[in-house]
Every structure is written in structure tokens, then in C-alpha cells.
Amino acid sequence: MHLFLVKGFLLGLITGSFLNVVINRLYAKEDIVKKRSYCPHCKKVLKWYELIPIVSFIVQKRRCRGCGDKISWQYPIVEIVTALLFLQASNNVGYQFIWETLFLWSILSGLIVIFVYDLKHFIIPDLVLVPIVVLVLIFRFLDFWSLGSSNLFKNWFAGWGIGIGNPQTVLASIAVALLVALPFAALHFLSRGTWMGFGDVKLAFFMGLLLGLHNALVALFVAFVAGGIMGVILILTKGKKLKSQIPFGPFLVLGTYVALFWGQGIIDWYFSLLL
Ligand SMILES: [Zn+2]
């Protein structure tokens, strides 16, 4: 079990390093796999020992060995966060449920790219969002978890509130996804894209599809509270006006992450307050 967690962490570090490449090359519209990694400043092709996650960053004291240009904090942060999330997913799902673990790792990887990309460029890339939408649809269609599921996934389905095990589940999940995306679409079209980007509408659709209605509501609640707090902090510290742009995608990703791992706990706690 412990070895499984160590493997999850190490695989997360390597995946995080790859996600950095995806984030940079998506923006530069470069091929993600064909070209060797290089310094974005001097274009020097990096040697294998300059590509070791975290270690290279520390050994090289944050500088490129070719031109001495500073390396962005994005690299080690994305690597460490990916590693920790992979570890958390492995630990929550358990080593006997390898497909569930792989599924969660893929979803988390997509969410990490969306988080950083939207923060940097104010765009949620379809090239990342569409594959994870398709992945969720495939897994729902195959009904992967009907035979035996980890507790995390059992809780997750409990949050769905609908039966599983037939093709209607896929249609029902799409209906829920449209329902979650609807208010975002309304905000987007009413404000002509100034309050809510269309990327946020699509991301909300994905959240409904992945999380189901109950957990998606938890995710949206977390996103709006976190976004509100951040907005107040920015207004107080930097004097930013409310209209000035903060991308909302990262908050939606944060909410999705919280709902994915703690959604059912939060729902149970909320209803225990009512009773
Ligand atoms: Zn360089």
C-alpha cells in the first residue's frame, strides 16, 4: 500500500512536468510530444538531467544553464501540486481500484492545466476540456463502477441521486450538466461575455457531468465564496475595481476539487444542521 502511494507521488511529479509542457505549448500552438523540451528564453534544448522535476530547479538555483534566465515558479509548483493530488487520489481510492485511480488522475491533470492556463491567459482550452468531457461520458457509459467501487466513488454516486447501470444514466448526466451550465450561459449571453466567458459555461457543463447535481452545487458554492473572498482581497490590497478581470475558471476548478473529495461529507454536514 505504501509503495503504491510512493508510486502515485512520483508519477504525479513526472506528470506535473509534462503538464507544464502542455500549458506552454498549447499557448505557443506547438506540437506537444514531438519537440524536445527547451528553454523558452534561449531555446537551448534541455538535457535529461535538466528535466528532473523539482531537483533540476533546486540544483540550478532557478536559472537556465544556457542563458541564466530565471525559471518560472510555475514549473515546481505544478509538479508538486500534481504529485500531491495524485497521492491524495491514490490514497482515497485505494490500490485495488486501479481504473478509478487512473480516471481520477486524468481528470485532475486536466483540471490543473485549466487552472493554470485560465489564470495566465484567461482562456479555458477546448483541447483539454473536450477530452475530459469525453472521458467522463465513456466511463459513465461503460458503467465501470457497478461491480465494485471504492468508498470515494460510492459516495460520489450517492450524490447523484439517480440510478446507475443503464444507458439512461448517460442521458441523465448530460441533462444535469446542461442544468448546471444554464445559469452560466444566461449570465454569459445577458452580459455579452463580460461577466462570464463561454469557457466558464463549458466548464460548468463538465462539472455537472462529473459531479452530479448535489456535488456540483457544492462546487459552485465553494467557487463563488472563494471568488468573492479573492475579489474583496484584491480590491482592498491592489485597489482593483470589481470590473477588472479575474478569471473565474480557477475558482470553478477549486470548487470541483473540493466537491470531488469532500462533497458528500459537506452535503451530509449541511443536512445534519437542518435536522
Ligand atoms: Zn535559457
TrEMBL record:
It comes from the Bacteria. The keyword Protein biosynthesis does not apply. GO terms for molecular function: aspartic-type endopeptidase activity. Residues 107-232 form the Prepilin type IV endopeptidase peptidase domain. The chain crosses the membrane at residues 6-27, 97-117, 123-142, 170-191, 203-236, 248-271. Residues 10-88 form the Prepilin peptidase A24 N-terminal domain. GO terms for cellular component: plasma membrane. One of its GO terms (biological process) is signal peptide processing. The keyword Cell membrane applies. It is a multi-pass membrane protein. It holds the Pfam family Peptidase_A24. Keywords: Cell membrane, Membrane, Transmembrane, Transmembrane helix. Coiled coil: none annotated. It is found in: Cell membrane. Its main location: membrane. InterPro entries: Prepilin_IV_endopep_pep, Prepilin_pept_A24_N, Prepilin_peptidase/N-MTase. Belongs to the peptidase A24 family. PANTHER family: PREPILIN LEADER PEPTIDASE_N-METHYLTRANSFERASE-RELATED (PTHR30487:SF0), TYPE 4 PREPILIN-LIKE PROTEINS LEADER PEPTIDE-PROCESSING ENZYME (PTHR30487). This is Prepilin peptidase. It comes from Candidatus Spechtbacteria bacterium RIFCSPLOWO2_12_FULL_38_22.
